Known about the structure:
- By secondary structure, the chain is an alpha+beta fold.
- Helix content is 30%, strand content 19%.
- It is built from 4 helices and 5 strands; from the N terminus they run ααβαβββαβ.
- Helix 4 links the parallel strand 4 and strand 5.
- The longest helix is centred in the middle third of the chain and has 18 residues.
- The two termini are 25 Å apart.
Amino acid sequence: MPMMHSAVVASWLAMAKDDAVVIDPDDINHEAMSNMWRFSPTDEETPHVAAADIVEFIGQVIAARSSALAGEAMLFYCWHDAQCRQLRFSLVSRSHGRLPFRREVRATQDVSLIAERVVNGDWRNAHFMQDPSEDADGQEAAPFILPVFVFPVPQASPA
């Protein structure tokens, strides 16, 4: 895999790639919370983090998780938590058949969508708003649907 250009993101990878994974097919919330990681740069680090680094970071975390989870069918998922200004990711067993969100989500397999949103939409934009209740004309806005990158780990082998 290519090297990340950001020392900040490389240090996040060092922390997250070998972390133990909790598997609890009976409790999706326990599994999700136990496997969750949260990342956001300091104001000084922000200029040194690019969306491409986040895409590479997520790819390397997935690769590390996939090798650690041989034989366990799980879903890796990541999203931008705008209220906390964080990139978050976690794992849950595929047997749950869902993600542990209490709001509507839009699953995507385009990790760059999340990376662009968190880096260029939020971290580099002090005025970022995720979920406005009204649009510019004072009309009630459509409900916000959270985009979530979802990837099965380990990746199923082609038949």
